[in-house]
Write a structure and sequence with these properties.
This protein is α/β, with parallel strands linked by helices and about 475 residues long. The chain has 10 helices and 15 strands. Strands 7-9-15-14-12-10-11 form a 7-stranded mixed sheet, sandwiched between helices. Strand 5, helix 3 and strand 6 form a beta-alpha-beta unit. It is globular and about 60 Å long. The N terminus is likely disordered.
């Protein structure tokens, strides 16, 4: 999304009204479909080995907000018959952005729960908050839906689905965890990670410029195989597990080894994660007696630069990667190389196609020709009607964290970074991955109307099993 990058000005003898920006398509559609029981939040969790100076961090983060003034915004009020929602840019935050919750055994779990249940309000600038949990050590409760799982350390033999070896949790009680909670109607994870990297650079005085992206050999634009499943048929849904009575989302985060990929492989780690997600869901559905159906996995694609010129907002476009039931039938290890190659061809072809962020239909729905309240009712109705055609799940692979996130000698450099995306029904499950310090950081987030915390642990074990199965030689 291309957005205005100039802050509002409130200086001068006659105060000027704040600058306003009409909601882009993604923001408007998200605003139409807000639900209190399942807040649209993105959570970013950054683990540092040491401690931060509170005043210095507040100052650095405030300066980072001013260097990326598009973050300093709130939803402008207006009459019901207005034709657009608008963002109102502000010269300063309306509220304290950086907070330090009380320390204690449950501080980490409580901060993670708040990230899922309480979205920063759109009416206050900025629609993000940064909670700093001090003294973070070993996390307990790996089976809890709002708790962290122990880092996974593979033993000599790969565990079968449903079982997994557990390693010790790193941490000594002297570390710090940064919880950045984002209202997804306004901003996305990569944009706010850019802001956090700027804050780290200001705080430490060290260069936190992004690393160069991995180079890929040039090649012709791939063509999708003729046997690609059609997107016109309703895809499989994740079979219901053991839902919980409380509304909202549950989450489990864990650390895994990065999957091995032979040099010169025609596929990427992202393709391995895509295949892993598809096989995990197909296995889960077989276990729960669901009939085989094609799967479609939504994949965000972000083409923005990662340096200080990165446009701030909701800047990813969504593509859907299909899988046929035959491809995901009872897993045959000898078929894995062919499945990885087909997936690589599909993802490359989809990423190369020019497409609006949410498709052409969303642009039509948000055309400002009728009052925004009427369009909101129409959008919600169409969303409910289109629920059977919604993709099976969403896999958001952030990839290697491009910034050092180095907060200086005392606090240190980030050794783990987790993201999670909203998991509203009818999908009910999102898979988010990132890699830091040579490790894969996985977050499973689900709607409690569909799954319970035991289901999340089982899905994690299945994911680990199938991720290992993608480590094959071509």
């Amino acid at each position: 999304m291309t957005a205005l990058q100039h802050p509002a000005r409130a200086d001068g003898p006659a105060a000027r009204p704040p600058a306003r920006i009409p909601f882009p398509v993604v923001d408007e559609v998200a605003r139409h479909c807000l639900q209190e029981e399942e807040p649209e939040t993105v959570h970013i969790e950054v683990h540092l080995p040491g401690r931060l100076d509170r005043d210095r961090l507040r100052t650095a983060f405030a300066e980072a907000l001013h260097r990326h003034p598009r973050v300093l915004m709130r939803e402008a009020s207006g009459p019901w018959y207005r034709r657009r929602y608008e963002w109102e840019l502000t010269a300063a935050p309306d509220t304290e952005v950086v907070t330090f919750p009380p320390t204690g055994p449950s501080a980490l779990r409580d901060a993670r729960t708040r990230a899922l249940t309480t979205a920063p309000p759109l009416t206050l600038s900025p629609p993000i908050r940064l909670e700093v949990v001090e003294g973070a050590g070993p996390a307990e409760g790996s089976e809890a839906s709002d708790a962290v799982a122990a880092p996974r350390k593979r033993g000599p033999a790969n565990p079968p689905p449903g079982k997994s070896a557990s390693g010790a949790v790193q941490g000594t009680g002297t570390g710090t965890v940064l919880f950045l909670t984002i209202n997804h109607t306004a901003l996305d994870g990569p944009a706010c990670l850019r802001v956090l990297a700027t804050a780290a650079e200001i705080y430490s005085g060290k260069d936190n410029s992004p690393a160069a992206p991995p180079t890929r050999p040039p090649g012709r634009t791939p063509q999708d195989p003729v046997d690609t499943p059609s997107n016109w048929s309703p895809p499989a849904r994740l079979a219901q597990g053991t839902p919980e009575p409380s509304p909202g989302n549950g989450m489990l985060v864990t650390e895994l080894p990065l999957p091995h990929r032979p040099k010169g492989s025609p596929y990427t780690v992202n393709d391995q994660l895509m295949v892993t997600t598809a096989l995990t869901i197909a296995h889960w559905n077989r276990e729960h007696g669901a009939p085989p159906r094609p799967l479609r996995i939504t994949m965000p694609v972000d083409d923005r630069p990662r340096d200080a010129t990165m446009p701030i907002g909701n800047g990813t476009r969504l593509v859907e990667v299909p899988f046929s039931p035959e491809e995901l039938a009872a897993h045959d290890p000898t078929a894995m190389p062919a499945l990885l190659r087909r997936t690589a061809t599909r993802t490359r072809a989809l990423k190369s196609l020019p497409r609006p962020q949410l498709g052409h239909g969303a642009a039509f729905l948000t055309a400002p020709v009728t009052p925004v309240a009427w369009r909101a009712a129409l959008t919600r109705g169409l969303r409910r009607a289109a629920a059977p055609w919604t993709s099976t799940t969403l896999l958001s692979n952030i990839g290697r964290i491009p910034y050092p996130l180095d907060f200086g000698e005392e606090a240190g450099r980030a050794h783990a970074v987790w993201f999670s995306a909203p998991a509203r029904m009818p999908r009910g499950l999102t898979v988010t991955t990132a890699s830091t310090a040579g490790r894969l950081h996985l977050a499973l987030r689900w709607s409690r109307a569909l799954l319970g915390h035991g289901d999340g642990a089982h899905l994690r074990d299945l994911f680990e099993h199938y991720l290992h199965s993608t480590e094959v030689t071509p």
